[in-house]
Structures are given as structure tokens and as C-alpha cells.
Amino acid sequence: MLHDPAQLDLMFQALADPARRQMVDRLSRGPASVSQLAEPLAMSLSAVVQHLNVLEASGLVRTEKLGRVRTCRIEPQALRAAEHWINERRLAWERRLDRLGDFLAETKDET
Amino acid sequence: MLHDPAQLDLMFQALADPARRQMVDRLSRGPASVSQLAEPLAMSLSAVVQHLNVLEASGLVRTEKLGRVRTCRIEPQALRAAEHWINERRLAWERRLDRLGDFLAETKDET
DNA sequence: ACAATAGTGAAGTAGTTACTTCAGTATCGA
DNA sequence: TCGATACTGAAGTAACTACTTCACTATTGT
């Protein structure tokens, strides 16, 4: 579920926008209402709600409405999934370099 | 340099596209030429070159031309920067949850 | 020298994205 | 109950993105 390619797609797409990353950054410091999220951003509330919907669809953020206030919070598992994708690729590359290094060291021994 | 917000922007934007992630995935298994990168993708060579340019501008991929072959390889430091951004936010959130848990445990003791 | 290979670059286009404004609906607080 | 608050939703638009095709250049193998 976490590694569903379609979900991964939505997550990276969501993180591609600076305003949305700013929102995630804000939420990493604790839950916030829509207006609180909007406050530091130079755009209309409507625009913020649209960004929020993208974040929610991607699974990176979960929201909950109580009365007239929608409270938003980060979904750390989703962040972990994106992190994991990058990490796997980087590690694959680095392991490859290590093997290459070992190989070169060995062939040097054989001189 | 690694944490330059503009560079981070380019990186996440680059990772947002599935074709580009597929290219990064391929490159994580070792260097490849443009045609090798293009081979599994259902699009023209020109389109692949355009994606490659995005990846290169983002710093995620470095390329080097020898003769008529452009060889592409992953830049693990750039991947690490993206990874790091996500990790920091997730950890901030999780530390917050821990502190909250401690607080709740303490106030429970005080009954 | 010549054909095949490997990639480059420009122009065009359909679809998407990131906004805007404006008009609306709940909910809350005095 | 009535005004202020906190969103919500639709419609429009300008800019951007992910392609395409086609014409082109440089390099390589025979």
C-alpha cells in the first residue's frame, strides 16, 4: 500500500511545489488549521485549500474537521515511503560503487 | 549548496515525473547511455533527452559525452539532499509525538 | 567515402497546474 | 439573532509541461 506506484507518484508530485513543501514544513512542527497554513503564504485561501487537497490526495497530510475548523496533520508513514524510494536508489548506486572499489582493490593485489 | 531551496525545488520537480523516476531507477543500477535510458520508455528519443535535461539541471544526474555517446550517472549527494529534506520533517513530527507521549505519561503519573 | 548510429534543437500542441475572483454555507460568539 | 469567522466550490485564465515530428550534426565501423 505504501509502495503503490500511483501513490508514490501523487506524493512526489505533491512535494514538487514549493508552497506545498512549505505547508508540509509548517505541519512538521505540529497540526494547523487551514487559515494557519495560509497565513505565511502569499496567495488566496482558496489556493491554499487546493494545495491542501493535493497533499491530502497524496496521503502526505490527513485532515479532520471539527466545527468550522479543519485541522491538518502530517502522515509520517507517507513521508517515509517517499524517503524510502529515494534511499533505495541511492543505496543501490552506492553498493555498486563499493563492489567496484573492491574489484579494483583486488585486481591491484594481483599485480 | 546541497540545501539551496531552488535546487531542492528542481530536484523534487524532477522526481515528480514517473518517466524521470524510471530513469533514475535505471541509473541506480549503473551508468547508461541516452538510448539505453530510452529503450524501456514508450516515447521518442527527443522526449527522453528533454527529461534527461531536467534531471541534469536538478543535479540528480550528471552526464558526460565521449564521442557520440552521452553516458549518464546518478549523483548520490543530490538524492541524499532530497532524502534529507523529507527525513528532517518526518523526524520533527515524530519527536513532537514523543514529547507529547512523555507529557501524557507524566501527567498520568501525577494522579 | 558512406551508411548507420547516437544524439541535438526548434517548433508546435494538447493537457495540466497554479492560481484568481466571487458567491456561497456552516459554525461560533456576543 | 446577527455579524464575524472559517472554510468550500465553481468558473475562468495564464503559464507551464510533456510530449510530438522533423530536420540536423557529429561520430563510428566497413
Describe the structure.
2 copies of one chain form a homodimer. The first copy, chain A, is an alpha+beta fold and 111 residues long. The first copy, chain A, has one domain (5-109): Arc Repressor Mutant, subunit A (Orthogonal Bundle). The first copy, chain A, has 5 helices and 3 strands; from the N terminus they run ααβααββα. Chain A has helices spanning 5-15, 18-28, 34-38, 45-58, 76-109, and strands at residues 32-33, 61-66, 69-74. In chain A, strands 1-3-2 form a 3-stranded antiparallel beta sheet. The A-B interface holds A 5, 8-9, 12-13, 15-16, 18, 21, 24-25, 27-30, 74, 76, 79-80, 82-83, 85-90, 92-94, 96 and B 5, 8-9, 12-13, 15-16, 18, 21, 24-25, 27-30, 74, 76, 79-80, 82-83, 85-90, 92-94, 96. The structure holds a DNA duplex (30 and 30 nucleotides).
CA-based shape of chain A: elongated
Q: What is the strand content of chain A?
A: 5-15%
Q: What is the number of helical segments of chain A per DSSP (H or I, 4+ residues)?
A: 5
Task: Give the beta-strand count of chain A.
Answer: 3
